[in-house]
Amino acid sequence: MDISQTAEDSAQKAPTLPSSGGSSNGSVADFTVPEGEPGQPHEALFLVLAYLPVFELLSMSEACISLRDAVKNDVLQWLKIVVQRPLNYRLSDEILMELTSMANGKLRTLALVNCVKITDDGLQRVVGRNPLIDKIYIPVCTSLTPVGVIRAVKTLSKNGHRLKNLWINGIYNIKKEHFEALCSYLPMNQAQQEQQRLKPLLLNEHTKFPTLVDHKNHPVIDMGICPRCKEVSMVFDCPRKETCKLKIERSLTDCRGCKHCIPRCKECGGCVASDEQEDAVCADILCSDCWLKLPKCNFCNKPYCKQHANEKLCSLSSSGFVCDVCEVKFVGNLCYNIQD
Question: Region Disordered: start and end of each range (predicted)?
Answer without folding.
Answer: 1-36
